[in-house]
């Protein structure tokens, strides 16, 4: 396709989008108005399904199909990075070396790592009740694990990071979201229909399928980010130039 053809296609698509966007903006309520139809419907739907956090109700109930797309984007990113960053035939493995870390940094990381893990689990588990959820908690969990790299070195991180298990967990969590959606389609005739018992409002087991989908996203985000960073760190730390000789200097460069 020529550059002129691509430009014409872009202009045609942009014109269509601009028309629909302009029409949508014209029909919006006036700025500062007391009328919030979408917000009112979202709050009503959250209360009906016993979900205290309206944002999680929107993400995992009212617009759960959109969240499936967002989760799939991250899964596809991890899969693509795994394929692109795998070790090539002309690359060789360089063993990571021990690194000197300040005692205060090591102590701070050792104390903060378990606290950060607990906070991440809490944010995921209480996503249907309070601000947070699977996406936010998954990022916290992935960040918490990498405190081992900051506080110690890459060898410690590798011992704490069961990469094979995380790869499987990432795939299972991503698939479970669709399986829950198909279950709703079979039982209630609608994909991702909230069919689980709704429970008691403001309790951790409330919300029907919302906490289940939220947990699946939390596992997928945490596992996916850890796996994604693992491939980048492997390239930066343990993949060396094939022409580089096995010397102490070369190994030191591979461990930085």
Write the SSE topology.
Blueprint: H1 3-26, H2 37-48, H3 54-62, H4 64-84, E1 92-93, H5 103-125, H6 134-145, H7 147-151, H8 154-160, H9 163-188, H10 210-237, E2 239-240, H11 248-254
Helix pairs in contact: 2-3, 3-4, 3-10, 4-9, 4-10, 5-6, 6-10, 9-10
Describe this entry's structure for a reader.
The chain is mainly α. It has one domain. It is 68% helix and 2% strand. It is built from 11 helices and 2 strands; from the N terminus they run H-H-H-H-E-H-H-H-H-H-H-E-H. The chain has helices at residues 3-26, 37-48, 54-62, 64-84, 103-125, 134-145, 147-151, 154-160, 163-188, 210-237, 248-254, and strands at 92-93, 239-240. The chain has a two-stranded antiparallel sheet. The protein is globular and about 60 Å long. 30% of the residues are buried. Residues 245-256 have low confidence and may be disordered.
Termini gap? 44 Å
Q: Which structural class do you get from the secondary structure elements?
A: mainly alpha
Cα gyration radius (Å): 23 Å
Low-pLDDT runs: 245-256
Largest sheet: 2 strands, antiparallel
Mean pLDDT: 85
Number of strands: 2
Structural shape: globular
Please summarize what this structure is.
The protein has 256 residues and is mainly α. It contains eleven helices and two strands; from the N terminus they run H-H-H-H-E-H-H-H-H-H-H-E-H. Residues 245-256 have low confidence and may be disordered.
């Amino acid at each position: 396709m020529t550059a002129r053809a691509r430009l014409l296609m872009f202009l045609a698509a942009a014109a269509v989008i601009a028309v629909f966007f302009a029409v949508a903006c014209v029909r919006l309520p006036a700025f500062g108005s007391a009328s919030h139809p979408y917000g009112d419907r979202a709050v009503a739907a959250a209360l009906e399904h016993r979900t205290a956090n309206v944002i999680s109700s929107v993400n995992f109930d009212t617009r759960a199909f959109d969240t499936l797309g967002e989760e799939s984007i991250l899964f596809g990113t991890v899969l693509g990075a795994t394929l692109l960053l795998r070790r090539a035939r002309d690359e060789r493995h360089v063993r990571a070396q021990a690194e000197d870390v300040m005692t205060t940094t090591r102590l701070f990381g050792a104390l903060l790592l378990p606290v950060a893990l607990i906070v991440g689990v809490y944010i995921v588990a209480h996503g249907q009740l309070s601000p947070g959820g699977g996406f936010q908690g998954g990022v916290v969990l992935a960040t918490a694990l990498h405190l081992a790299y900051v506080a110690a070195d890459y060898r410690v991180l590798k011992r704490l990071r069961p990469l094979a298990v995380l790869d499987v967990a990432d795939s299972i969590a991503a698939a479970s979201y669709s399986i829950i959606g198909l279950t709703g389609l079979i039982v209630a005739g609608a994909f991702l229909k909230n069919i689980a018992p709704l429970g008691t409002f403001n309790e951790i087991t409330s919300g029907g399928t919302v906490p289940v989908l939220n947990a699946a996203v939390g596992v997928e985000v945490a596992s996916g980010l850890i796996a994604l960073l693992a491939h980048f760190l492997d390239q930066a730390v343990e993949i060396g130039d094939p022409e580089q000789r096995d010397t102490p200097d070369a190994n030191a460069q591979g461990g930085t």
